[in-house]
């Protein structure tokens, strides 16, 4: 699945495991939340990510977060916006500095929202045109509210310079 | 443009865009033009296009596309109203429809014209962003804001702050369901604060600043609920942070499995007021408060983009109005019913009724819009307000000029003296336009308007609110009507169910169903009998609503069903 970062396609070093797949002892893997314990049992140096369902409480990751390099949030349908709040809570409440990956079926028209909620990479849904995503990345120069990216305010206004 | 030119005057009553705001809107129009081109070329399917057009207020209705244009906090300037008239004339059927959310809808729009229409709107600093979709919708406001004698705080600057904050909000544009905020600055609630997802009432804080009463979880639709009071002391500097917390809790926990149970009212009921408040407080405590703080400098910077009227009436303005009223009883009646007291001596607010007897509530022709824009320029600082009752207001009219204004309105069919009376009916578009409706609301409104056309009769009946919805989604606010009328479908026939005792104001209540639904041709007569029963039983000057609350439903039930 093509991976997008800063509007450009980048290589994806991660392997995403489903519920039943074999968990390799080495290499960067993303495990489902239900297999997090298993993942954490691997040697400490191995890179680990976790895939959250949209109804997961972010606070439950608090103690394990230092061991995680990646958290994947998901949009089962583009209209389900819970992942926006999850990403923002990861950055803002738990100060997570690793990769937040959007998966599922986000729209290119949501790209700026994803970034401003703290998402760093997007696993493009099947059939996506990366150029449409790239255009969405540069479309707007102004936003009207603060975000976790801490963009510069324009004077005393609410506006932020993107 | 050279820098030496003087800055254009700021619009009165709403925020004046600058170059940055205009560039943002231009980007937005180009984005939509690109999306429409992709749709017409077929590279976007209707399924993919739907959420994008809805984000720009474009609905596909029964017969055509409908474009809903945002009128932030219901305030327009004359230039904007003229542009709306021009769009109605050029791209629609020469009229527009003002809505209960203080917006304007065009009902006969062609998809391929919409990018040009949005570009024309952008030329006058208007847009259709977030007039649809599961996002924070246009923030509604008191139609007498900044003018009313009973107002404590002019809420429009804060309404504008909320408009900006919610515009393409990164986290809250894909909520479980739509989200409506209303704000007032008067203790007399004219915004139905308790029937909104969030209702805010601004008031002076002990330290001389501004603070807010916060209501949450009110709403109509299938499950009408009066909102609960969350707190009474929200400081201005925490306004955005606290709303972030309130909406975030909703985004995380609101139901997404059932569209009819997805509004915040259902979540607040499920968690209980205390349960919801705890979650909000926990979120508020955990968030980066410095980042989301609303500093006084920001409020001042946004306030500075509002034009303010220079109010100077001649000393004898009130006396001149008195003389004109004594000389003309028809004018006198209109002043009694269609004006509101102004805070400044010699001024008054005038309500322009869009409810002529037998007409369609909220409709205005291009010519009428142009005329109102001209009147606003001559007599009201170029400012026009749209009310949630689907009328228009000139907020600051000199009392000595009111007679001239009235004469001009009368010549255009805009001087119905029925504000707050039985002819001032709210009706949704109903089955004449809407893809969701079960029944036609407009013909009932027209027949009621015609039945009670006499201004003398309307004044005798006194204050009464009739609200008509063509389906259970309750866009016509029937739950909050003193008399509510709900269209239902019975085996392919249109029937109408009556509810009594609803109220949108500070004494908010949900109307109760009176009895079995009535066929269309019996509904108007039934309401006439209801009104007759009220006139017989009312005590002193009490309103219909007060009589109902005092005596209960039984006598009204008899009046409606005894002869049926």
From TrEMBL, chain A:
Pfam families: DUF934. InterPro entries: UCP030820. This is Oxidoreductase. It comes from Gluconacetobacter sacchari DSM 12717.
Automatic annotation (TrEMBL), chain B:
It comes from the Bacteria. It comes from Gluconacetobacter sacchari. GO terms for molecular function: 4 iron, 4 sulfur cluster binding; heme binding; metal ion binding; oxidoreductase activity. The lineage of its organism: Bacteria, Pseudomonadati, Pseudomonadota, Alphaproteobacteria, Acetobacterales. Residues 132-284, 464-560 form the Nitrite/sulphite reductase 4Fe-4S domain. Keywords: 4Fe-4S, Heme, Iron, Iron-sulfur, Metal-binding, Oxidoreductase. The keyword DNA-binding does not apply. This is Nitrite/sulfite reductase. Pfam families: NIR_SIR, NIR_SIR_ferr. Residues 65-123, 360-410 form the Nitrite/Sulfite reductase ferredoxin-like domain. Signal peptide: none annotated. The keyword ATP-binding does not apply.
């Amino acid at each position: 699945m093509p991976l997008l970062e800063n509007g450009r396609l980048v290589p994806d070093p991660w392997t995403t495991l489903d519920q039943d797949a074999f968990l390799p002892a080495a290499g960067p893997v993303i495990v489902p939340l239900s297999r997090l314990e298993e993942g954490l049992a691997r040697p400490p140096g191995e890179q680990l990510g976790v895939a959250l369902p949209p109804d997961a409480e972010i606070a439950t990751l608090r103690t394990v977060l230092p061991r995680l390099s990646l958290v994947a949030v998901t949009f089962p349908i583009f209209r389900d916006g819970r992942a926006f709040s999850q990403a923002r809570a990861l950055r803002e409440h738990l100060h997570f500095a690793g990769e937040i990956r959007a998966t599922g079926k986000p729209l290119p028209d949501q790209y700026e929202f994803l970034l401003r909620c703290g998402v760093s990479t997007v696993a493009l849904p099947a059939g996506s045109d990366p150029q449409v995503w790239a255009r969405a990345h540069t479309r707007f120069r102004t936003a009207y509210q603060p975000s976790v990216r801490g963009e510069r305010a324009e004077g005393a206004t609410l506006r932020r310079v993107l | 443009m050279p820098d030496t030119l003087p800055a254009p005057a700021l619009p009165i009553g709403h925020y004046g865009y600058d170059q940055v705001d205009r560039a943002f809107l231009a980007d937005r129009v180009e984005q939509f033009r690109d999306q429409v081109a992709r749709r017409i070329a077929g590279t976007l399917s209707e399924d993919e296009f739907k959420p994008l057009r809805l984000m720009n207020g474009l609905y596909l209705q029964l017969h055509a596309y409908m474009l809903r244009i945002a009128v932030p906090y219901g305030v327009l300037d004359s230039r904007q109203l003229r542009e709306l008239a021009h769009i109605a004339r050029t791209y629609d059927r020469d009229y527009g429809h003002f809505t209960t959310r203080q917006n304007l809808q065009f009902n006969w729009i062609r998809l391929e014209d919409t990018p040009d229409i949005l570009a024309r709107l952008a030329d006058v600093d208007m847009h259709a962003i977030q007039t649809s979709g599961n996002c924070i919708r246009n923030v509604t406001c008191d139609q007498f804001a900044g003018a009313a004698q009973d107002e404590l705080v002019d809420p429009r600057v804060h309404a504008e702050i909320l408009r900006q904050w919610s515009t393409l909000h990164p986290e809250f544009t894909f909520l479980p369901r739509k989200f409506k905020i209303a704000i007032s600055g008067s203790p007399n609630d004219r915004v139905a604060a308790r029937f909104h997802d969030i209702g805010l009432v601004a008031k002076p804080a002990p330290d001389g600043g501004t603070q807010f009463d916060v209501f949450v979880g009110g709403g109509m639709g299938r499950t009408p609920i009066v909102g609960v009071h969350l707190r009474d002391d929200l400081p201005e500097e925490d306004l955005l942070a606290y709303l972030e917390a309130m909406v975030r809790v909703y985004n995380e926990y609101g139901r997404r499995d059932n569209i009819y149970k997805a509004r915040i009212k259902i979540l607040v009921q499920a968690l209980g007021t205390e349960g919801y408040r705890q979650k909000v407080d926990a979120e508020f405590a955990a968030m980066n408060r410095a980042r989301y703080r609303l500093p006084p400098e920001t409020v001042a910077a946004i306030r500075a983009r509002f034009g303010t009227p220079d109010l100077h009436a001649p000393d004898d303005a009130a006396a001149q109005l008195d003389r004109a009223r004594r000389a003309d009883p028809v004018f006198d009646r209109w002043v009694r019913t269609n004006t509101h007291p102004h805070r400044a001596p010699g001024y008054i607010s005038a309500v322009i009724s869009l409810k002529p007897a037998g007409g369609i509530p909220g409709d205005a022709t291009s010519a009428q819009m142009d005329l109102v824009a001209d009147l606003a320029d001559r007599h009201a600082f170029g400012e026009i307000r749209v009310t949630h009752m689907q009328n228009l207001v000139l907020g600051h009219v000199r009392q000595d000029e009111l007679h001239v204004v009235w004469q001009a309105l009368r010549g255009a069919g805009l001087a119905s003296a029925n504000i707050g009376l039985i002819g001032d009916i709210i009706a949704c578009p109903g089955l004449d336009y809407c893809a969701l409706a079960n029944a036609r609301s407009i013909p009932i409104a027209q027949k009621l308007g015609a039945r009670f056309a006499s201004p003398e009769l309307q004044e005798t009946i006194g204050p009464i609110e009739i609200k008509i919805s063509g389906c259970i989604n309750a866009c016509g606010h029937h739950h909050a009507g003193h008399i509510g009328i709900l269209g239902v479908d019975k085996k392919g026939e249109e029937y109408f169910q009556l509810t009594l005792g609803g109220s949108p104001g500070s004494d908010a209540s949900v109307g109760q169903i009176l009895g079995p639904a009535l066929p269309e041709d019996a509904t108007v007569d039934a309401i006439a009998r209801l009104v007759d029963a009220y006139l017989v039983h009312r005590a002193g000057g009490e309103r219909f609503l007060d009589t109902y609350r005092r005596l209960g439903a039984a006598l009204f039930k008899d009046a409606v069903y005894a002869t049926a």
